[in-house]
Specification:
292 residues, alpha/beta, Rossmann fold, seven-stranded mixed β-sheet, two-stranded antiparallel sheet, 39% helix, globular, binds zinc ion
């Protein structure tokens, strides 16, 4: 059951620090595209200093052993690869509106120009739902105060929202209030998130999306394991196969108590039913049993 009982067509805008970051909500975005919602993904940086694993590997070698072709790859070539990769990944979920804002990464250095451009983007897109990164750096249960790209991106988005939420007399940009912000929460523990989105039907697409990021060393087997262990782990706690995790930015207010189809399913499922529902039958070896 959707928490949005109005069943309106929605506009979603995701703003993330690096090209790969959007992957943590792409299964969810795929569901919104399926339902006729408009989804735009924007990447704040070009990602040119992030996850260049090939270059890192060469630098670890002695100078005479380094592969010259990798050492000679230009910043522009690497950035072009990143753009292609994120477009490919988004494309698997029907998300075709992908914007690269192209700011330098590692570190992201906040500028007024950057905040204004993000504010213009938010106003132009006028999203009902804005998805972005967690405002605090989080690694398990440890919070870090120092800025890093993901939390910096969240702060820039928050600042841009403040601009768009508060019209100024004589200002060129109009007013738009985002109805709700959601934060992707891949590193948060299952009992710290606001809710899971069941993306079991997106299993193969999620693996293909991870495979798209060849520039950061993703092999097909790595992609499969990553999806199974990360989103499969969330799915374990959500009592489904695969799930994406989200935090909301504020308390959700409803006019009746929410009860989802998933709640009703769990209420009647015996363990035998659950094993069958998840496709974890004896015939399947690794079975997530999802997607087709
Ligand atoms: Zn990132």
């Amino acid at each position: 059951m959707s928490l949005d009982s109005a069943k309106r067509k929605l506009k979603l805008l995701g703003i993330f620090a690096h090209p790969h970051d959007c992957i943590h909500c792409l299964g969810t975005c795929g569901h919104h595209v399926r339902d006729g919602d408009a989804v735009t993904i924007a990447i704040l940086t070009h990602g040119g200093s992030t996850h260049n694993e090939k270059l890192w590997r060469e630098w670890m070698k002695s100078p005479e052993q380094r592969e010259q072709a990798v050492m000679d790859e230009t910043h522009e070539q690497y950035v072009a690869d990143k753009k292609k990769e994120v477009e490919t990944a988004c494309g698997y979920f029907g998300v075709t509106d992908v914007r690269m804002l192209g700011y330098p990464d590692r570190p992201i250095r906040r500028t007024d120009e950057m905040v204004e451009e993000v504010a213009d983007l938010i106003y132009a897109a006028r999203p009902d739902i804005l998805i972005t990164q967690l405002p605090a750096r989080l690694d398990s249960d440890r919070f870090f105060a120092e800025p890093e790209d993901h939390s910096t991106c969240a702060r820039i988005v928050t600042e841009a929202c403040t601009l768009v939420h508060h019209p100024k007399p004589g200002g060129a940009r109009g007013y738009h209030r985002v109805a709700r912000k959601y934060y992707i929460a891949p590193s948060m523990k299952y009992d710290e998130v606001s809710f899971f989105v069941d993306i079991s039907d997106q299993y193969e697409k999620r693996i293909k999306a991870e495979m798209a990021f060849v520039s950061q060393g993703h092999t097909p087997e790595y992609a499969r394991r990553r999806v199974e262990r990360s989103y499969g782990n969330s799915g374990w706690y959500a009592r489904t196969n695969l799930a994406e995790k989200f935090l909301t930015d504020d308390i959700v207010t409803v006019d009746r108590l929410p009860l989802t189809d998933h709640d009703l399913t769990l209420a009647k499922d015996t363990v035998y039913d659950e094993i069958e529902r998840l496709g974890w039958t004896e015939q399947e070896e690794t079975g997530t049993g999802a997607d087709s």
